[in-house]
Design a protein that fits this description.
The protein contains 16 helices and 18 strands. It has 606 residues and is of the alpha+beta class. The strands form 4 sheets. The chain has a 6-stranded mixed sheet, with no helix packed on it. A 5-stranded mixed sheet has the order 3-2-1-4-7, sandwiched between helices. 43% of the residues are buried.
Length: 606
């Protein structure tokens, strides 16, 4: 929507800065060779510099591959060679003789650009590539329950140095007079610009994270973090009923469990625990603030965190410094990095069985809620011990955490302003985008009202569709959100369901009742809704600056229901690629984007 957006493929930093140099030098040398003996000396230096950079190119590629593969020793040896060639190329192009020819018409500005580029390449090797060989994410890895804050500070210093080099190189490139450059030189400077621009977005977040991490880990005093485990078998907007809760204490990098609790420990409130946003209350009712099991109804995790902080403070008198949300599906991802964990019950919790064991099998095994809570607490404690032991593979653990964040299964809401600013606008906040610039987001959120654990069997499929890239100028685009819910429970298994899974108090046993909430893009207007193709009358509301409609559906065992909502955007407005965000379910959701004429950047997000 709007103008098509294309992303250039990322090139290795050093390679992209050098590939153009040999061709550039050849062109420039022909231009200056007729100036005399001095020109010939510059030409000789140019050919020598070309040779140095040509030898550097494969070394740069090799160093990058070794760094990415974690071959620190090999990368250091390669960078030792690379550094020699880059330094020599800089020496050859950065002396009084070379500079004396920079006044020559046409050739001069181009020679100056080559000198600046050669200097920049050498500085990147010395200030970015060399430090990269020493960077290790193991500094973020706990050992015996603690993260080494000294190592974290040293890592922060290295990244600060890298950031400084990047900024200095960017400043040097800004000094290049682009107007008089021949095409080959101009293209080369552009490629070097792009190389710097590619690395800056990677360095800046790392620098910001390392600036706030020490205090977040208790460097300036103990911190308390409340971790809630959302039970996806009883769906709520951001995951599920927050059935299990864990209070972590962090001091000087050491992490320990301070307290464990469950949602059954919190009494219902006669009035909301805190003042509710009127729009939130209108859409979800005041129960979102009266029952701790319902604080996750909203797709905005910042709302959830404020509510759950208030519940915890009232019950236990402890103010928390941040709220973290996790679910058993994401726990399975972590177990893929740590390996299996043996529970006190003798069960072996693995990447494959974490979700089915914790979200379904436990209810067949233990009939009483207290027994279930004890099992969950033991599982949380056992996994925590393994995670804080430092035994997990660092790369695999980061991959697991990244996947959990991308799917909306790991969220974090800090009370510290610097931390909140650092993560603002990222998926870990558990919030919807505040505009349509980067993405045009529609939402599909599942809230169970069955009061059981039947959503273990619920399959969600969602489609986001738009004509925003094909409508005529002056015509308002439409955005259509379709959610298909399938109760995969075989009818012949209903009778054998555990009572805690399907109590059958309000609905026939095995039936799943859902309040489905569909959100349109920012600035759009709700037009119509259907259930299984038949029009339904609903009252649109506004929440999070978006139109939202809540539609109730019931699925008998084996049944499928399809709900569609249509929203109209603003004529001639700019819309980023379409994405669908949804409740993270037990079963992977199938998401489809139908946006004819748009770039392939449309996203089937979690």
């Amino acid at each position: 929507m709007g103008e098509p957006r294309t992303d250039r493929p990322q090139k290795p930093l050093i390679k992209s800065a050098r590939l153009w140099v040999p061709v550039t030098l050849g062109v420039l040398l022909l231009a200056i060779i007729g100036i005399g003996i001095g020109g010939w000396q510059v030409a000789e230096r140019g050919f020598a510099a070309r040779d140095e950079l040509q030898q550097a190119i494969p070394l740069a590629k090799q160093a990058q591959e070794q760094i990415l593969a974690g071959d620190q020793e090999g990368a250091i040896a390669t960078v030792d060679q690379l550094e020699v060639h880059a330094a020599e190329a800089r020496r050859l192009t950065d002396d009084p003789l070379w500079r004396s020819f920079e006044w020559v018409p046409v050739a001069g500005p181009n020679l100056a650009a080559v000198r600046i580029a050669s200097t920049s390449v050498d500085e990147l090797v010395d200030g970015v590539v060399r430090p990269a060989t020493a960077l290790s994410l193991d500094a973020l890895k706990p050992v015996d329950g603690a993260i080494d804050l000294v190592a974290l500070t040293e890592l922060s210093d290295v990244v600060d140095g890298v950031a400084t080099t990047i900024d200095e190189v960017a400043g040097e490139l800004d000094q290049v007079d682009r107007d008089q450059l021949i095409d080959q030189v101009a293209d080369g400077i552009v490629q070097l610009d792009e190389a710097v621009e590619q690395i800056q977005p990677m360095v800046e977040p790392a620098q910001a994270a390392l600036a706030v991490l020490p205090n977040a880990l208790g460097a300036d005093g103990p911190r308390n973090y409340l971790v809630l485990f959302q039970n996806n078998a009883e769906s709520r907007g951001t995951g599920g009923n927050p059935a299990a809760l864990l209070l972590l204490n962090v001091a000087d990098g050491r992490v320990s469990i301070a307290q464990q609790s469950s949602s059954s420990d919190f009494s219902p409130q006669e009035t909301p625990i805190t003042e509710l946003d009127p729009e939130t209350e209108a859409l979800y009712g005041d129960k979102i603030g009266r029952y701790i099991q319902d604080v996750t109804l909203t797709p905005d995790f910042t709302e959830t965190s404020e509510l759950i902080r208030a519940f915890w403070a009232k019950k236990y008198g402890v103010e928390v410094d941040g709220v973290v949300s996790f679910d058993p599906v994401a726990l399975g991802y972590l177990l893929g990095a740590t390996g299996p964990v043996t529970l006190p019950s003798g069960d072996k919790l693995t990447a494959d069985n974490a979700a089915p064991l914790l979200l379904n099998e436990v209810y067949f095994r233990y009939e009483e809620g207290d027994e279930q809570d004890a099992f969950f607490a033991a599982a949380a404690s056992s996994v925590f011990q393994v995670l804080t032991s430092g035994s997990a593979d660092t790369d695999a653990l980061l991959d697991a955490l990244t996947r959990a964040i991308d799917e909306g299964r790991l969220m974090y809401a800090p009370s510290d302003a610097a931390e909140a600013e650092f993560i603002d606008g990222t998926r870990i906040t558990g919030t919807l985008p505040v505009d349509n610039a980067e993405q045009t987001t529609v939402g599909v959120y599942v809230n169970d009202i069955t009061e059981g654990k039947l959503d273990f069997y619920l399959q969600l499929d969602a489609t986001g569709a738009t004509d925003a890239c094909t409508v005529d100028a002056g015509t308002a685009p439409t955005f259509t959100t379709t959610a298909t819910l399938t109760n995969t429970l075989p009818p012949d298994q209903v009778a054998g369901l555990a009572e805690y899974i399907a109590p059958g108090r309000f609905f026939p046993k095995g039936h799943i009742a859902t309040d489905l909430v569909l959100y349109g893009p920012i600035g759009s207007t709700f037009q119509s809704a259907t259930v299984d193709g038949a029009a339904v009358s609903v009252t649109p509301l506004t929440h999070l600056d978006r139109p939202a409609v809540k539609i109730n559906v019931r699925n008998a065992p084996g049944a499928t229901r399809t709900v569609t909502a249509v929203f109209t955007g603003a004529a001639d407005a700019e819309y980023g690629p379409l994405e669908v965000r949804h409740t993270p379910m037990v079963r992977p959701a199938n998401v489809t984007i139908d946006a004819p004429g748009c770039t392939p950047e449309a996203d089937a997000a979690g």
